[in-house]
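Convert to structure. Protein one:
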Amino acid sequence: MKRFHSPRRRTIVVALLALAVASGVYAFAATNTVPGSTAGAGSGTISGYTVSNIQYTLNSTNPANLDAVGFTIAPAAASTVKIQVAPAGAWYNCTNAAGTVSCNTTVGTQATAAGATQLTVVAAQ
């Protein structure tokens, strides 16, 4: 009669079981690498801009159309400037060159002199 549970077979089974347990423990004990990072909070003053020297440029062919609005802005460091010439009207992009702002009011919805009832300037640094 053959022995089903020989010492050699038991040794092999125990060795395989130990290998499986060791592999599982290693998988759970593996570490993650997390790079350093920065977080924080702070505050700063938000102040407005001063707009002056406003000029409106009428269209030379049809003076009822408003082709551009220009003005100076201080402080001059505004990197984004947009205007609106009527409440709830179209917004127009502007360019700022060292505090001298120019806004083309012909792109999209053409601004009109009659429709220009309120100048709203939004600027951000």
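Protein two, convert as well:
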Amino acid sequence: MYRLQVKAHFDAAHRLEAYKGKCNREHGHRWEVEVCLQGKDLDNRNMLVDFKDVKDALNFVIDTYLDHYQLNEILGEDNPTAEFLAEWLFRQMKARAGKGLQVVRTCVWESPECCVKYSPDMRSVSDGVS
């Protein structure tokens, strides 16, 4: 089994309406996101998938729905938390995964110190943060 990861970032604002504290006000982040894919078969180039193809899919999602948007508005969610975004991104990337590829997990960093990893099967999420 092979696993690969691709990282990207975007800038966006949000506010948490059901939160008591500063995050209740509109504020922005430079979000970092990672997607991890797995598969068992290499193609005729000895690649699971070209990194460029994964980057293109991830950047399409970011450019279309996330980058420089107000996330509450674009996603129609009162509380677009890092947890919400991690699962949302997982679903988006799952819909774009190529044949023979499985999205294992997504990771969303709201700040350099804080991230959320999402996988429907938590056994597939490693203990290490990367």
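The mean pLDDT is 93. The first helix runs from residue 51 to 66.
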